[in-house]
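Hypothesis: this fold can be encoded by more than one sequence.
Test: take the structure tokens below, design a sequence, compare later.
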């Protein structure tokens, strides 16, 4: 599943249809401002529902450190500036990770319906921190897989900033500093909120107030996800 397993490519030609069918593969986009708690909630959803959690940010950070990556310096510069990496790179990394996960399940050959695969050639994915722009959303759904819905963690900026500065004391992440955090907030509002609004108009957004403590947030999240998957 690591991005090191294969070099990201520009992907398939437009018009050839998505790689995965939503009949076999369930994709939930997970969005929220930086520090909204997406990663924490995703970990718990994986444990309860058996999703495979793919973090766009983690894949990008791993790719920038991968020896011989043609995208390493480019990704590093974009992350430092708090701006969005070109969609072709991010979509290719996600598609590769999904292919690896589905292939892994297919090779297991158990078909018992457990875990992220739910049988050969199938998969259930939480894609965390993606899509961050409309072009990413459109490209992913056209060439990889249409999403089931968007899980949106809504949180005030002052709460997110406090969480990120606290995390920055130990995370070692280059973007967990006040300057980068401010840039990331602006980027989210300007480019990612239109994505949320776009899917909301389609009735595909499950919105959760991410201000309370993680246990409270998860109780609400679990209930809403269960209801949406059962519908």
């Amino acid at each position: 599943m690591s991005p090191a397993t294969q070099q990201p490519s520009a992907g398939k030609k437009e018009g050839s249809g998505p790689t995965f069918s939503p009949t076999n593969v369930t994709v939930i986009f997970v969005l929220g401002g930086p520090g909204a708690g997406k990663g924490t909630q995703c970990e718990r959803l994986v444990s309860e529902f058996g999703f495979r959690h793919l973090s766009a940010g983690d894949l990008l950070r791993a790719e920038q450190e991968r020896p011989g990556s043609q995208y390493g310096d480019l990704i590093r510069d974009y992350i430092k500036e708090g701006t969005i990496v070109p969609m072709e790179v991010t979509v290719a990394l996600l598609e590769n990770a999904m292919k690896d996960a589905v292939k892994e399940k297919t090779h297991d050959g158990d078909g018992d319906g457990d875990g992220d695969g739910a049988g050969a050639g199938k998969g259930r994915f939480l894609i965390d921190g993606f899509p961050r722009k409309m072009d990413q959303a459109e490209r992913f759904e056209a060439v990889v897989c249409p999403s089931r819905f968007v899980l949106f963690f809504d949180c005030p900026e002052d709460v997110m900033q406090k969480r990120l500065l606290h995390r920055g004391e130990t995370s070692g992440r280059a973007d967990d500093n006040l300057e980068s955090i401010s840039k990331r907030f602006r980027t989210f509002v300007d480019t990612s909120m239109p994505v949320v609004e776009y899917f909301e108009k389609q009735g595909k957004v499950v919105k959760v107030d991410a201000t309370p403590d993680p246990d409270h947030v998860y109780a609400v999240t679990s209930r809403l996800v269960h209801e949406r998957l059962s519908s």
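Confidence is low (pLDDT under 50) at residues 1-6, 110-119. The first strand starts at residue 25 and ends at 32.
Hypothesis status: open.
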